Amino acid sequence: MKPEEIKKLDAYFKRTFNPEMIVKARPRKNDSAEVYMGEEFLGVVYIDDEDGDRSYNFSMAILDVDL
């Protein structure tokens, strides 16, 4: 994922959900980025280029022990 995309996603997550959310590049992956709340890992944002329309999918696992 390009640095410009990560900056836009970071601003979107901060504005929409919480100012403490951080979007970071993933090591050795260029099709996704990691999302954190402070130091805690929340999930991954993936690029979806299907049918020529670019969109982003946020995937977050919720463990049973966290409920």
From TrEMBL:
| Highest rank taxon of the organism | Bacteria
State one Pfam family annotation: DUF3126
Q: What's this protein's name?
A: DUF3126 family protein
